[in-house]
Amino acid sequence: MKKLLICLLLFCCSTAAYANNPLLTPQKEAPKHVAKQVQYPKGIQQFIYKIFDIQNDMKSQLSSLIRDIRDGGSKKSLLIILVLSFGYGMVHALGPGHGKTIACSYFLSTESRYRKGALLGNAVSFLHTLSAVIVVVVVYIILKQSFLNTFDTIDYWVRLISYGIIVFIGLFLLGRSVRHVWTDKRSTATHNHHAQERSIIPVSLAIGMVPCPGTTIVLLFAMSQGVLLLGILSVSAMALGMALTITMVSVITILARNMVASLLSQYQHRVALIHSTLEITGAFLVVLVGGSLLYTLF
Amino acid sequence: MKNIIWLIMVLFGMLPSIVFSHPHIFIESSVSVVMDKDGLLGIRTNWVFDEMFSSVIYEEYDKNKDKRFNAQETKLIQSTAFSNLKGYNYFSSISIDNKPFPVTYVKDFSVKPAGEKVVYQFFIPCSVKAIKEYKEVRLAMYDSTYYMDIRFSGKSAGVENVGTYEVQQKMSENPKLAYWDGLMVPQEIVYKFRSKK
Fold this sequence. Notes:
The complex is a heterodimer of chains A (about 300) and B (about 200). Chain A has helices spanning about 1-10, 40-70, 75-90, 100-110, 115-140, 145-185, 195-210, 215-225, 230-265, 270-295. Chain A has about 300 residues and is mostly helical. The relative contact order of chain A is 0.16. Chain B starts with a helix and ends with a strand. Chain B contains three helices and eleven strands; from the N terminus they run αββααβββββββββ. With about 200 residues, chain B is of the alpha+beta class. Mean pLDDT of chain B is about 85; it is low at about 5-20. In chain B, strands 1, 2, 5, 6, 8 and 9 form a six-stranded mixed β-sheet that branches. Classes of the chains: A mainly alpha (about 300), B alpha+beta (about 200). Chains A and B meet through α1, α2, α4, α5 and α6 of A and α1 and α2 of B.
């Protein structure tokens, strides 16, 4: 059981160093192969492979349907495209990614309400899609530039800003956590939840501002077929699908967290210590993850 | 207590978002080993991109919109959307008798249309002299950043100019090559060949 949990944790927090398109990104030296430390249960691996297979199939069907509409296809095809895009978004959201590490660390560091997790998931999903739409429209339609290479340049700068903000948020959280311990206010603190929910905005912005390459490719495909509007409809449905997955996972997470909180109540005398440790560890992880992501850009 | 902390971390880890979810591009790879008079000459490779990414390649590089790639267009693709893979060993992991063989250059690059899809073709020179004992060459293809999902099509590879050689091959997953924190295990083709003379 414990092994399974460790595997799941590593999966959730997967941190590959590079997220740019390798076809377009020069690499000074070949990535060194790091021997894996954990043997994942076969079931988890097969589940992940299945997700990727389904994604591939959906993408292929989506291409055919978009082409069908271009050639004067029926309204039924449009409906199927929207449903398929929604499903594709749901499945795509299950894939591993860096955001999980950041969000995991962030939620370790702050006491969060149920709504907050769902808010982060939804905001990130829509921002991630919106920024892709903006980049495609600006580069292709307004600047009329070669997309692939321009996208990579823009992507680099957006990431630089995004990771910088993440480090800054981490430092802010770290300062706040240390101050809590220093002033020993935790036991008496009355949390201002409204303020906490506002604090989720910079986090969502930092994670979501990086344009989603998956969305970008769907948009570029639609544009190459002369149906950009259909592409925007499709990626909007994708964003809804991604948001739904995240919200569902959020609900499960918060329910489980409440369960854990009630289990912790028997360690009443240690609660303050546990909270402080989690806060400081989480904040430190946010700085560490943001810093290491920044490092990959240089 | 330790288990509870693990549980919290795992569940919080699952909470978040799609950010930077992978993969974004799918490649179906087919390979064939090419033999010559001395033994193994190299590996001919075909990468078929998914339709969506293919459309981006058409849009960007098929300047005259004839759904084909002439010499000039191919050169442009090679310099801007292929040569960068040198730094990734062209996503190819090769070992010869268990010794790593880093792929530092490839040749005969070309780009072909296949319906709505785009195919990259290239040759990986990998010369291994055949003797009476079996020589073993292992080949796996994967992108360790998992931006691209690369899978071999079919269960085996072709063999060109088999001539007087005895060639065996099998395909299976190699856990030693696992990447993406051990989650992804690439498929590997193991060739064994020897001279029958």
